[in-house]
Amino acid sequence: MVFADPGEALARARALLDADPDPLHASVAHQVIGIWQRDFGDLRLALHHLRRARDLAARADSADREADVLATLGVALVHAGRTRQGLAAFERGVARGGGHTRARVLYRRAYVWWVLGRHREALEDVRKAVPVLRQAEDVIWTARALTLRATVHLALGAVERAEADFTAAEALWDTTGQEHDKADAVESRGLAAFRSGDVPVALRLLDEAEERYARLGTPTFMLNIRRCEVLMAAGLAPEALAEADAAIKKLDGIGGQSTRKAELLLAAARAARLAGDPHTAIARAALAVRLFAGQRRTWWETHARLVLIGARHAAGRGSGRLVADAAAVAEKLASFGAPAAPEASLLAGRIALGLGWTADAERHLAVAARSRRGGPPLARMTGWAAQALRARAAGSARGVLEACRRGLDVLDDHRMTLGASELRARATEQGAELAALAQRASLVSGGPRRLLVWSERWRATVLSTAPTRPPADPELLSGMTAFREIASRAEAARMEGRPVVALEREQRRLEREIRSRTLHMRGEAPGGGDRFDVGRLLERLGDEVRLVELAVLDGRVQVLLCGQGRVRRFEAGLLAEAETEAEHVQAGLRRLAHPGAEARLPVVEAAGRRLEELLLGPAAAQLGSGPVVVVPPGRLHRVPWALLPSLRERVLSVSPSAGSWLRAGETAPPPDGCHVLVRGPGLATGGAEVPELAGRYGCATVLEDGEARVPRVLEELDGAALAHIAAHGTFRADSPLFSSLRMADGPIVVHDFERLDRSPYRIILSCCDTARLASVGADELLGLVTALLPLGTAGVVACSAPVNDAAVVPLMLALHKGLDAGLSLAEALRDARSALPGDALHQATGWAFSAFGAA
Fold first, then answer.
1. Which residue from 38, 509, 592, 210 is spatially nearest to 51, judged by alpha carbons?
2. What is the mean pLDDT of residues 269-291?
3. Which of 121, 219, 399, 520 has the fewest CB atoms below 10 angstroms from its CB?
């Protein structure tokens, strides 16, 4: 009953003890209370009750009763970090139990083997237990054993076997009343989805598990912490912060465990730091430190102190006391063998550098730099960051560039273990400091060419390879799934003070296998192994085309003008001022999308002139007369570049990176690709351009009304030469890979496009917000456009602002007229703008659309 109705089980056990039962029944009652405390309460109380249950079972002279209690006690001892004692309890339990009871003991020992990372032993014990449990028709324990076996298979990367066992276990759970076990199974599947890189499915399953726990009234705070982990990994730190804060409020309302509250506060502090809210991070971390200290949980307290110091530094604080605090935390973390120790030493060195304490900084950075030689990837990257800061303090630009190169190489390898493009994009945040250090060093010592190379090194890296598709390489998928599972469990074990040697050994083995597989995958992925080559770029540009790459150093825009065989650098304005002006422009375009706002046109045009001064500066006069490619940083992706006076009448295209533009230009159109026209529901004009285009392209596939359903649309888009989609676009700033286009049966999202074998060679998205992107990580962009570029799309026309549906129709018809004449998307869009009526509504509509890529 303890996993069917935990509250009722606890009440009955206590009532039974109040009735002064015989030793046998008292043993059962104490065991139930011990299980409840172990899983929902205080582990120390659990051990007290379980030892009492063991002693009473011995007094009752029941070998099976004693064996069963010994198994429960063994699990609790291992969770308390007393592995030797726990395994000894299992040895006695296996020896004392017989038949059915012995099978239950073996199942629980298998669970402990899994906790310790000893998978072969776990599978061996489950192999022995399952037939006996099935023969005894013990549905509950058979389902538990299958769930455990699935989890072990997942840790080993055997995804199909895991899914089969999860499915079989769930079928058994459906025949029982074990509601807590059912909820736990759903939560386990959510964790499995997360380890496989499927964040949406993970979140859905965790939500379902929460609903099940809520019906039981059992605590869900560990689930909340897990979901915060998923949200932060997906780049959704604000949502993670909200999740943690809501859980804390709920826990306070029921007078719940202070241990869980401290852990939730730590999760909230980490989320607040990632969300760029250091003051909230300080408040949450400070309270977590006080709670952990009161609970005498030194390991947790030290980690909370690290978050607190980092948040104070992020808030602009710097003092000798902060250096000393960071150094003390680093020393204590090192004594624990915690992977975060180098991060603390790096923080101490960084604060010391800010104070000008070069000797102290060198001492702390030297300690942090040791981690560059071994350990997990992010620890090695931390070490290279420390080494780069040491070189900068010593005045060695060459040393800075070498350390940055080595650190970003390590992070590249780590990113490739992440299957989802959003997770890979988010991981680049870890390398932002290294990339910035290298850019500053190259500006000082290497000139414009080297600055261009380093600007490209860490820009739009997600677009350099297609997103991982599990069927393409099942062995890599299995390896990555196992790696993520093991790495997560190792960290959880460290946080709980449990042994991690076996887990770390397994993690290192999987890292080696994954690295080998990812090196092969890079070779097979289109452009995946390319390093940016300035010479190749200049050769492609020739004498007529100019590529303008905007780099940002210390808040100021640096313009790298490429063309005519050279790279020149110009200094423009402040990025913050440009961002503010771009927001004003977006607001103006939104107003101009409605009739009657003509008076706003001069204001928007004036803002365009100011944007040109801030973003191009003196480079605007050096653009020549030919086509221009603009490569902006992620934070400027919403600038309507066609509004800038020097770009207004030009053939103009935009690209997330120079490397992406080169790859797009090398993409060949499909030899037998067709034209696909899609018309979604709810458009003000009904997608009026689609019928006329259908008449123009006699052989085009037209999907509208009930035929414009997501499966059919994806089927037709795959490998198309040209796709025109007239459908309402929705941009999701909170979760950019759920940005969508509305189809007849619901939204088609970025995740759907990533399933295509080859996206259309050219694609035109004719409605609002289709070109809006989220800037995440170091300089990554996520959204509809960037999902298409690595999948075979060489050119996209899309819109970055709300537009007037009626005004879009003539623009689209003129655009297709230019394509019929053999023009590129950028050329056709330039001509289409000039063909529009000269009123404010149509002008604003033309400015809102951009051509991306090189087709």
1. 38
2. 93
3. 520
